[in-house]
Design goal:
The chain is α/β, with parallel strands linked by helices. It is built from 10 helices and 8 strands. It has one domain: 3-Layer(aba) Sandwich (Rossmann fold), CATH 3.40.50. An 8-stranded mixed beta sheet has the order 2-1-3-4-6-5-8-7, with helices on both faces. Bound molecules: iron/sulfur cluster. The site of iron/sulfur cluster has 12 residues, from loops.
Length: 285
Amino acid sequence: MSLTMKDLDTGAPNTWCPGCGNFSILMTVKQAIIQLGLKPSQVVAVSGIGCHGKTTDYLKVNTFHVIHGRVLPAATAIRLANHGLTVLGFAGDGDAFNIGMGHFPHAARRNVDMTYIVHDNLIYGLTTGQVSPTSKQGFVTKTSPRGSPEPGVNPLTQSLTGNATFVARTFAGEPKHMTEVLKRAIQHRGFAVVDVLQPCVTFNRVNTYEFYKQRVYKLEDEGHDEGDFTAAYKRALEWGDRIPIGVFYVEDRPTYEESFPALSGEPLVGQPLRRDLSRLLAEFM
Ligand code: SF4
């Protein structure tokens, strides 16, 4: 029997604010899993701290909720221990580009085969509305009452200069587009980043659904060449009357896993132990 949306629902009560863009991300991740024919037992979702972090409460696959900013190290470890799994990392903009920023360029350049989905609402939602690393310069919040003096982090240019091999952006108000982008990201062999424009309807009154609906355009409608790094970078810098969404850049490069002979066959978890670990294990007994 084929998998349904309900099969991927944990039944946990959802506490996101009505209208939050996180609902759309959760729904489209489920759609992508179903449409790609993945089994829940094959999928691991890792989330960090923030409103996005509850994704792992609501998605019925293998899940791991980590401390702030540590989605990528945990997801990397899971993937290397068992490269038979499909690994999905979920992070908010604060989690990904503030406390977790040190991990980001290294995960990108390593090209571990996983998908990193950033719920990018340009504000801290869970802690009730402070300026975040992706907040735009001049953005007024309770911690930036005169407007943020700093330019925001651009997740796309960071991904490109970090050598990520799949770089995309989509919008929570375009669920069909998001499903297609997520499916491609999951199927990509290597580190795939998907920055999702995710309206926080409670605390971000600037970057709303209406704001994005008036501005987003699709790269695929404009003949964008996904193999052209320079073109991708130029598009990644666009933010104003027009905001591009779609797949910016794709590169075929060996994954980290492929660089290690020990990982070329059976996943590590299925391989026999070649060392006597009894003394080490005894220390933890
Ligand atoms: Fe969504 Fe914002 Fe509410 Fe968090 S605070 S659940 S991001 S609307």
